[in-house]
């Protein structure tokens, strides 16, 4: 999002340290300069201590409601486009997207935030070069960088957090919906087939899922009415399994229109271990355990107060303390 400067009285030289690579493709042709739809694009996600952090630090319970309202983002410094070749020798474009080193540690321990950063990086490159990138061809190859990461000169004033906040606000206003930045698609990682290394957030839809048309790409956070996840296969032989124990707390809040926060802790360590539904007739949230390691006597039922009619529910999973968090309005 920030213009790279070759010379200035007051410049900083960023020395990006490569972390991981995002691979995708151009989703449409461009005329000036000429680019062909389908050409591969690589984003080197890098770190440098000189890139500022958000004013509000990392706290999942605080930042996820802010992200849903387009009020929190990790600042990204994006380089100019470079020309390279893929492993088949075909033309490819490369960008360096640089964030603060501490922000890299945040996304290393929070899979959802990493996937959201992937979407922010794509948007940053799109704005930088006026291109459109495919969300259907995203992959994370086993690379720390595509080609050699280069130094980047920027004005000190361009790294001012207030300026970055204004840039983020301008970008947010371009979104067709406040939540569109969160509706990143599931990442199809090259040579990695571990489901829990992919997006770990509920697929929430406004009507029952049609399994015949179900796609492998899922929205991160949406309104919940009915949601279904295929149950894991049952063990071939009966085994003694410990019982899953829930610890549930509810808090009244007044945040961005949300009036109730529910925190649900258990031995489960992933949102993929749950099936979450809303019974609209009884206005009750029903949580089913899908983890074959644990047994449950019955589903967890959470009746909502009568003040909530046709409730809007947002959810995310906090990995560090194995907590499912629901916001309701």
From TrEMBL:
GO cellular component, as recorded: cytoplasm; R2TP complex; ribonucleoprotein complex
Gene3D superfamilies named among the record's database cross-references: 2.60.40.4160
Pfam family for this entry, one: Pih1_fungal_CS
Ranges where the Pih1 Ascomycota CS domain occurs: 243-328
GO biological process: box C/D snoRNP assembly; rRNA processing
Alphabetical list of InterPro entries matching this protein: PIH1/Kintoun_subfamily (IPR050734), Pih1_CS_Ascomycota (IPR041441), PIH1_N (IPR012981)
Domain called PIH1 N-terminal: residue spans: 7-154
Recorded family membership: Belongs to the PIH1 family.
Protein name, per record: PIH1 N-terminal domain-containing protein
Native source organism of the sequence: Wickerhamomyces ciferrii (strain ATCC 14091 / BCRC 22168 / CBS 111 / JCM 3599 / NBRC 0793 / NRRL Y-1031 F-60-10) (Yeast)
Lineage: Eukaryota, Fungi, Dikarya, Ascomycota, Saccharomycotina
């Amino acid at each position: 999002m920030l213009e790279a400067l070759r010379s200035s009285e007051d410049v900083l030289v960023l020395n990006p340290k490569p972390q991981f690579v995002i691979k995708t493709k151009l989703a449409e042709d461009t005329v000036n300069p000429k680019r062909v739809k389908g050409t591969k694009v690589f984003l080197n996600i890098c770190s440098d201590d000189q890139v500022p952090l958000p004013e509000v630090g990392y706290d999942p319970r605080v930042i996820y409601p802010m992200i849903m309202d387009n009020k929190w983002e990790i600042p990204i410094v994006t380089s100019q486009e470079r020309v390279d070749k893929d492993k088949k020798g075909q033309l490819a474009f490369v960008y360096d997207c640089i964030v603060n080193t501490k922000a890299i540690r945040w996304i290393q321990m929070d899979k959802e935030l990493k996937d959201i950063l992937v979407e922010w990086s794509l948007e940053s490159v799109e704005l930088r070069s006026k291109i459109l990138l495919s969300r259907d061809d995203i992959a994370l190859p086993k690379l720390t960088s595509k080609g050699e990461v280069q130094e980047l000169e920027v004005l000190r004033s361009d790294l001012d957090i207030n300026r970055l906040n204004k840039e983020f606000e301008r970008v947010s206003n371009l979104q067709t919906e406040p939540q569109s930045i969160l509706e990143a698609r599931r990442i199809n990682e090259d040579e990695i087939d571990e489901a829990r290394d992919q997006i770990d957030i509920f697929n929430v839809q406004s009507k029952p899922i049609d399994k015949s048309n179900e796609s492998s790409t899922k929205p991160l956070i949406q309104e919940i009415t009915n949601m279904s996840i295929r149950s894991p296969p049952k063990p071939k032989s009966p085994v003694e399994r410990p019982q899953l124990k829930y610890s549930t707390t509810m808090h009244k809040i007044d945040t961005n229109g949300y009036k109730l926060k529910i925190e649900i802790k258990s031995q489960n360590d992933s949102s993929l271990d749950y099936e979450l539904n809303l019974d609209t007739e009884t206005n009750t949230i029903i949580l089913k355990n899908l983890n074959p390691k644990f047994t449950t006597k019955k589903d967890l039922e959470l009746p909502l107060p009568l003040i909530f009619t046709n409730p809007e529910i947002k959810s995310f999973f906090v990995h560090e303390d194995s907590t499912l968090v629901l916001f309701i309005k």
